[in-house]
Amino acid sequence: MEQFAKIGDFCPNEACPDYAKLQDGQRQPNIIKSGKTKKGVQRYQCKTCKKTFTETTGTLFFRKRTPEHEILETLALLAEGNRISSLSRVKGFKEDTILAWLREAAQHGEVVEEALMAEFEVKRGQLDALWAYVRNKGEKNYPETDESGQFWSKMRRSRRATMLDMDSRLRVARGIAKNETLASIEVFKTLKRRGHPDGPPPTISDGWGGIDDAMIEVYGVVPEYSGRGRPPTRKKACQGWHFQSANGQTAR
Ligand SMILES: [Zn+2]
Question: Could you point out which of 2, 35, 102, 125 has its C-alpha 20 to 30 Å from the C-alpha of 95?
Fold first, then answer.
């Protein structure tokens, strides 16, 4: 399993010959402590490339395949009360992976907190709940939202398609393109990559056009409820499909 390296255990400079070389067990470490910043944050220097860096130099999620921003965003969504299972479905990460990030993030404590509060506007109380959850390791104690596995697709300004998880309100996918159909194709391509490889999930839409064309394009299936080129027929949704009109009434 991938591990978090402690800040100061390696050089984060990609151009350095000793980039990412862990210091553990090294007789001649290339990283040395180099005073502190005005705010009291430990500064380090790499003797090989002479670069200095601090605990907040984008090294939190060292050697992770997933970009740091994405990991932090996932943690932020957890802190906001989304359940791991729905995040896994929405983001396409394994639940174990998310749990591992969470446990390891807890070890970084303040640095992670700083990033989550500054970049994702996570509140102090939410973080406390998050760490309490890590300590207890009991999912029952964690405030989670229920989910039904339904999605809501929405079109904005006729070329921005958004797919939301109905219950968590998480944005699952977004497509921006020249027109509605192309934008929704982007959405379904993202869904296909992220946990819905075989077919589109149960979806409610606000009635924008292009959803059927997009599904045909991405999944190669023509849903029962409509034909190509027509807007969804709200009275004849196939099993598991519901369409919602702009006035908020759901038709089945
Ligand atoms: Zn270096």
Answer: 125
What is the distance in A from the centroid of ligand 1 to the CA of 114?
25
- Asked whether the beta carbons of 103 and 76 are under 8 A apart, the reply is no
At 113, is the pLDDT very low, low, confident or very high (cuts 50, 70, 90)? confident
In the block, tokens 């446990």 appear at: 103
110 φ, ψ to 5°? Answer: -60, -35
pLDDT at res. 7: 65
Of 90, 112, 110, 92, nearest in space to 101 by CA? 112
At 150 the pLDDT is 56
Three-state SS for the chain is: CCCCCCCCCCECCCCCCCECCCCCCCCCCCEEEEEECCCCCEEEEECCCCCEEECCCCCCCCCCCCCHHHHHHHHHHHHCCCCHHHHHHHHCCCHHHHHHHHHHHHHHCHHHHHHHHHHHCCCHHHHHHHHHHHHHCCHHHCCCCCCCCCEEEEEECCCEEEEEECCCCCEEEEEECCCHHHHHHHHHHHHHHCCCCCCCCCEEECCCCCHHHHHHHHHCCCCCCCCCCCCCCCCCCCCCCCEECCCCCEEC
Q: What is the CA(62)–ligand 1 centre distance, in A?
A: 15
Could you count the other beta carbons within 10 Å of the beta carbon of residue 123? 12
Residue 208 token pair: 């924008």
The one-letter code for the residue type at 17 is P
Quote the ligand 1 centre to 52 CA distance (angstroms). Answer: 8
Residue 110: other Cβ atoms inside 10 A: 9
Q: How far is the CA of 77 from the centre of ligand 1 (A)?
A: 34
